[in-house]
Design goal:
The protein is of the alpha/beta class and 551 residues long. Helix content is 38%, strand content 16%. It contains 21 helices and 20 strands. Helix 15 links the parallel strand 12 and strand 13 (341-347). The longest helix is centred in the last third of the chain and has 17 residues, at 374-390. The chain is globular and about 90 Å long. The termini are far apart.
Length: 551
């Protein structure tokens, strides 16, 4: 079995990898590292997220730079801030024992001054950047790329999809003509071939597509759901799946926001991630997700680039991707590090043909998932509640209390007492147990179909939220005014999300929200209101400073 030392890496890097419990190279690392260490070449790598490609190009990059030379010798371009931050963090971990090695990160959505100060102070040999911010720094004459001998283009297909081709052209024009270019992409469309032909000389191609086609630790399921029934189907799915820590993929930013807001208002521990969010909002969402305060993250394909969490249980394709290659890209977020994962695709009747295409292209088998009926969701919740009760070890103290109050309940039969417990449990399930699901998902329940039932992990009580538009301040609440309103194309749910994301106050502690044209008023439980107005200072909405004041 190969190890990193046998690939030709130096002792300081091997030691850092050992500290990280990284001992066995992945296929892309085993193929790429020796080639890049052996000679000066251009490389075209085809690899999905989760294959270890950051180390595949990052480790040779660290070995190549001259730590005695305090100038930028290598740049890594990535499509999103999250991915740029992730790459830089990994490079810093890999270079833990390399004296004099410095890595800086340059990306939009963060203060320019602090990044300029970092560049001046640390004098990095490697800069990881998003294209737009790097162009900005080049224009400001903050970055000198004349000594750059290696350029890495990571997630190159996504950078082109996001319209960065002109920026890439500009950036590369400031580097040496005889530099080496290492390009990595999840897919290989014609535009990537064109980019390769323009900037690379006889590139060596490395592909791990075949090895990564099938992750045997992922179970692939699909449900047939009509478009207007999707959200209801998703709620039932979430209610019945038990333990859930995963990603829900939408095609557009607007759909991502709508879905995240709707489910959050219904009480699900969910948040959204998309390109219209500020860097502070995105960082806040990721902190909550990694800490599992948020268990479900709705995201677009672009926003999800750079998310690196190994213990996800599920990936939900709320919208199927236009490019089926992204199905593998998305689904590969679960079933990592030897854990089992589940990928569920919600498909319209017209999308079912994609199942056959994916089975043929990827060599995987799909099972039909039958969205549970409202009664099945209720039954699963009741069963889980009963198992939860039976699993509790009664204490002597509780037995004394039980004897003390038993007389007060003697007029109730066992069935009547259970009915009260079940009624209370039903409040936990929320809206997914009401109404008909007008979809083919609820029919044709053959023995081969899969209707999953919850075995643990009920959702929080969504019945306590009340009407956020009700008039009059409640007792124990503090009122605030914010300079946002309906004229900003915001709904009550959007306003709730802005308040919670910025202040850190959970939605259950927010009361009335009254929205006018250019301003809104909202109530917060008084013991949670301290420092809330200050949390908005320095923040902007569509270029306008946010102002919040206590009333």
């Amino acid at each position: 079995m190969q190890n990193f030392e046998s690939l030709g890496l130096s002792e300081p890097i091997v030691k850092a990898l050992t500290d990280l419990s990284i001992t066995t190279p992945t296929p892309i690392q085993a193929q790429t590292i020796p080639l890049l260490l052996e000679r000066s070449i251009d490389m075209l790598g085809l690899a999905q997220t989760g294959t270890g490609k950051t180390a595949a190009f990052g480790l040779p990059l660290l070995e190549t730079v001259n730590t005695d030379l305090k100038s930028i010798q290598a740049i890594v371009l990535a499509p999103t801030r999250e991915l740029a931050q992730q790459i830089a963090e990994q490079l810093k971990l890999f270079s833990k024992y390399m004296k004099g090695l410095s890595v800086s990160t340059v990306y939009g959505g963060a203060p320019i001054s602090s990044q300029i100060n970092d560049l001046k102070k640390n004098k990095p040999q490697i800069v990881v950047a998003t294209p737009g911010r790097m162009i900005d720094f080049i224009d400001r004459k903050v970055l000198n790329l004349s000594n750059v001998c290696i350029v890495v283009l990571d997630e190159a297909d996504e950078m082109l999809n996001m319209g960065f081709k002109e920026d890439i052209d500009t950036i590369l024009s400031f580097t040496q003509h005889d530099k080496n270019t290492w390009l990595f992409s999840a897919t290989m469309p014609r535009e990537i071939r064109d980019l390769s032909a323009k900037y690379m000389k006889d590139p060596v191609e490395v592909s791990v597509r075949d090895e990564q086609k099938v992750n045997v630790d992922i179970e692939h399921l699909y449900a047939i759901v009509k478009r207007h029934d999707k959200q209801e189907a998703l709620r039932r799915l979430l209610d019945s799946e038990g333990e859930f820590y995963g990603l829900i993929f939408c095609r557009t930013k607007a759909e991502t926001q709508r879905l995240a807001t709707s489910l959050s208002e219904a009480g699900y521990p969910i948040d959204g991630l998309h390109g219209d969010m500020s860097q502070g909002q995105r960082d806040n969402v990721m902190r909550k997700f990694k800490a599992k305060r948020v268990k479900m993250l709705v995201a677009t394909d672009v926003a999800a680039r750079g998310i690196d969490v190994d213990n996800l249980t599920h990936v939900i394709h709320y919208d199927m991707p236009d490019d089926l290659a992204f199905y593998t890209h998305r689904s590969g977020r679960t079933g990592r590090a030897g854990r089992k994962g589940i990928a569920i695709a919600l498909m319209s009747p017209n999308d079912v043909r994609k199942v056959k295409q994916l089975e043929k292209q990827l060599g995987i088998g799909f099972k039909k998932y039958v969205v549970p009926s409202a009664d099945e969701v209720k039954a699963a919740a009741i069963e889980a509640k009963m198992e939860e009760i039976l699993a509790v070890e009664a204490t002597d103290d509780s037995r004394e209390w039980a004897h003390a109050i038993a007389d007060k309940l003697e007029f109730l039969s066992k069935e009547e007492l259970l009915a009260k417990v079940i009624t209370q449990s039903m409040k936990v399930i929320g809206k997914s147990t009401s109404g008909d699901l007008n979809a083919t998902a609820g029919s044709d329940r053959s023995s081969g179909d899969r209707g999953r039932r919850a075995d643990k992990g009920r959702k929080p009580d969504r019945s306590k939220r009340g009407d956020r538009k009700s008039e009059g301040k409640e007792e124990g609440m503090t009122s605030f005014k914010i300079n946002l309103g309906k004229s900003d194309e915001l709904r009550t749910g959007d306003m709730l999300k802005i308040i919670c994301d910025t202040s850190g106050v959970r939605s259950k502690h927010i009361g009335r929200i009254n929205m006018n044209s250019g301003e809104s008023y909202f109530d917060v439980e008084s013991d949670k209101a301290k420092g809330l107005a200050e949390a908005f200072k320095g923040l902007r909405f569509k270029g306008r400073p946010l102002k919040v004041e206590q009333k």
